[in-house]
Amino acid sequence: MNFIDHLHSVVSNRKNRALFIDHSRCKELDLCASLVMDTIIEQRRRSAALGLSGKFSDDDRVNILLRASGLLERINHPDSVLPPEIEAKVGKSDLFSGFSKYSEKSHNCDRAATGLTEYFSKCLERSGANLSHAGEHKLATLIGEAITNAEEHARGKWYAKAHFDLLRPKEQEGGACHIVLVNFSETTIFDSFTRRGASSETFRRMLTYANKHLGKGIFETPYDEQALCTLYALQEGVSSLPERRGTGTTSLIDFFLQLAGKNPKMCVISGHALILFDGKYSLRAEPFEGGERKVIAFNNTNSLERPPDGSYVRTLSKPFPGTLISMKFNLKEKYATAV
Known about the structure:
Elements (H helix, E strand, L loop, with lengths): L1 H11 L5 E5 L8 H17 L3 E5 L4 H9 L2 H4 L9 H4 L2 E3 L3 E6 L5 H19 L3 E3 L1 H21 L1 E11 L3 H4 L3 E9 L4 H4 L7 H14 L11 H9 L14 H12 L5 E13 L6 E5 L2 E5 L17 E18 L5 E3 L1
Parallel strand pairs: 1-2
Antiparallel strand pairs: 3-6, 4-6, 5-12, 6-7, 7-11, 8-11, 9-10
Helix pairs in contact: 1-2, 6-7, 7-12, 10-11
């Protein structure tokens, strides 16, 4: 978060006419980090000129991401063209974007879900396979639910991008997928439950859950009220809007876990809240608010009556300016079928 603050201050200063980006000591680069940096830089370049230059990393994987799905690809730099032998194993995704208006679902949401699903299908064709109908449906639903959820919780510009590669076939099953959705907004998931028109009863239950697990025990908890309320917002049936069923984020997590093969990694960052997923804890049907709904409580009993695992639910010292959802997983082979 310190880097985001620093980058914001640098690019927002109109006196700065050039930016040098040094990746020489970068050993690992994630699509979510790349997308956030690229978007901040592009926002400045749309309003005022900013010259760009930089230095590649010593790590080939970092450079491939930079060229295929990073800033070089975004500004159509000549170095974004990959060698043919690498190009055959890497898929470049379009950048999708839209504007959140709380309760209004934008047409860009469906366009992004359809476009990104078609993108992954084309990537798999390169290896002589394709998404099965089940895999195609699940992937489109995952992306659509993620964007719908962002549009419900915040007002602002959102971006969605993906990356796919078959660079390490022995480790990647049906291919390595990475989908990132970022919404730059002053409104976080927690804030959406405090705005005018939000369900006051849902917010009351949310605070009751948070207060139950704050300040318990001898040691200080790694999470605060905002982090716990954000976790509560992930449960099925919880929505900031009284007329909504509150299934968006739940469906996102559920489809993610069903699609994921080895080593799934997912995170939800919203303001100060950080929620991590790696498959250790999963959604299960549990008694919840007078019925049976899918719950993920991040503890061994999957009970919201017990505190969550502080390794997976945490509070960031500095807030992210909006909400970020990152899904990184290997596609299960059963969702890929021979063409």
